[in-house]
Amino acid sequence: MSSGMEWIIRAYVYCTDFIINVANGTGLSYFEVNALLFILVWPVVSLGLLGYWVWLCFRYWQLEKEIHP
């Protein structure tokens, strides 16, 4: 299977195995870990990155204002 899809399949298998191992380690089901990951963790990380980007833009604007008054 060397059609360029091999890395996608490997990534999917790795991620699925990771979630199964986390589920086994925590006593939760695969579906509960998956839900926590995509309903809680992903949005929190995305909002955090958005907030960091806004802070960086604001800081850049402040520095530009100091350099070129």
From TrEMBL:
The chain crosses the membrane at residues 12-31, 37-58. Keywords: Membrane, Transmembrane, Transmembrane helix. The keyword Membrane applies. This is Uncharacterized protein. It comes from Phaeodactylibacter xiamenensis.
